[in-house]
Amino acid sequence: AGSWGTSGGQGYTQDPPVGTCDLRGELDRFGGVSLNLARLGALDRLDAAAFQKGLQAAIQQWRSEGRIAVWLHIPILQSRFIAPAASLGFCFHHAKSDSSTLTLWLGEGPSRLPGYATHQVGVGGAVFDESTRKILVVQDRNQLKNMWTFPGGMSEPGEDIGDTAVREVFEETGIKSEFKSLLSIRQQHANPGAFGKSDMYIICRLQPCSFTINICQHECSRCEWMDLNDLVKAKNTTPVTSRVARLLLYGYREGFDKIDLTMEEFQAVHTGLFYKLFHKELPANYKTIPGM
Amino acid sequence: AGSWGTSGGQGYTQDPPVGTCDLRGELDRFGGVSLNLARLGALDRLDAAAFQKGLQAAIQQWRSEGRIAVWLHIPILQSRFIAPAASLGFCFHHAKSDSSTLTLWLGEGPSRLPGYATHQVGVGGAVFDESTRKILVVQDRNQLKNMWTFPGGMSEPGEDIGDTAVREVFEETGIKSEFKSLLSIRQQHANPGAFGKSDMYIICRLQPCSFTINICQHECSRCEWMDLNDLVKAKNTTPVTSRVARLLLYGYREGFDKIDLTMEEFQAVHTGLFYKLFHKELPANYKTIPGM
């Protein structure tokens, strides 16, 4: 685990040898050093060859100090420094909108640096109306022609699972709904739509707050409230949709507590950040009584 | 949804205006155009200024043809072309080891291009021995000093949840185990250890196949088989560990079917890829009987 590339403020490396450009990195508590080009002065006047020479000298220095890794942060408009770094052995770790981060492993053996995000997260909303036994289904205009599925889509950065479900259902169908539980998780690798990354698809149970369909023409060709029994019987549906329809039928008949993962919010011990935890509902006596 | 940046093979754009460098993109079925610099000839002799001029002309052409987005793939050693593209409005979409991908949105309104991976996935293994009521717990050397938690760590690219749990448990503790079920999912945003991305942490129930602890000194300061009742009572543990301990106690007393999400493998309709689906076990009659 660990928190590479985040700590900082543990001091700086020693001055580099005289005669090279001044590349002082910031030390981290894992034995790495971090160099952020946005913080260097006079960057516009520095050419790529001088940078490469300076970086080579700095690497030698860091190696002699026993540093095990280098993180290099480069603003997109200064990307002329990427190829010189790559020719010294740096690789991309990741890039976001306006900057990239490269790494070089100096330690023994294979790199122990943490990777970047490995999954995209999609969420589908199974909007089920208990009073009428109707379930909201769509046919996707782009992908799954004539197959009934649940409305849904990709989580936006920083968005909670339940919020994605409610937002996507509304965007695609015009139906307002409320998060009730998490029902199912699918993990898939090498999905061609995920740029070679993995895909986590989560289906939530939602309760409708409105009933008038207002379809998004961009995304859906059809949308309707279907009797749950008909979705269970339907041939033109995906295996996951069919399975979740059966799960909902089980819950509808024998109680949703049989199928629901409920959500609770907790606060992390070290960071103080809030997070959401999903699992089968725990009876109250198990939650509260200490030392059972 | 959709599968941007993956299709290709739908023909090429028209020839660019004479006098600029030859930047012919590949069309995709979503109305975008994709330009892979690795496929251009004579790239080494092309300078950044000529590239910028050629790209500007090509964008004008693509715009006039009604293309709505441009994808630009650049090998790391050709990164001198990034800044010129950025000055024409391109941003990084993502980067992997030896190449980066930039995008420019030409359509109306805000970009509808899909984002990149948003989550890292970690997995913890709750190795519980029913016959002795003992659970395997560790104290992390780096992060959670003196707090009992379950062994675990980040999924490697393309690795299944259950495999991560079994691998991490073995690496940290030397205990061999077998995947039984998925118990709990935590979603957390802006975790400082995740480079600003979100974090999905999944806890699995594992059954031990060996019992002799062989601790990894890099990662753990302590490891032991603890009575489950003691973990439920423990003060020096994280909220998630404590909650999952209570969940396990509930399952131990009243049946693990109360808490387990079991796993099944399916095959995707369109891609033919296999994937794993987790949800509360569905009684056999609900799985098999059509048209209930």
TrEMBL record, chains A, B:
One of its GO terms (molecular function) is NADH pyrophosphatase activity. It is found in: Cytoplasm; Nucleus; Mitochondrion. It is an enzyme of class 3 (hydrolase). CDD domains: NUDIX_ASFGF2_Nudt6. Its main location: cytoplasm. Keywords: Cytoplasm, Hydrolase, Mitochondrion, Nucleus. Its EC number is 3.6.1.-. Residues 118-253 form the Nudix hydrolase domain. One of its GO terms (biological process) is negative regulation of cell cycle. InterPro entries: Nudix_hydrolase (IPR020476), NUDIX_hydrolase-like_dom_sf (IPR015797), Nudix_hydrolase6-like (IPR003293), NUDIX_hydrolase_CS (IPR020084), NUDIX_hydrolase_dom (IPR000086), Pre-Nudix (IPR040618). The keyword Lyase does not apply. Belongs to the Nudix hydrolase family. PANTHER family: NUCLEOSIDE DIPHOSPHATE-LINKED MOIETY X MOTIF 6, NUDIX HYDROLASE RELATED. This is Nucleoside diphosphate-linked moiety X motif 6.
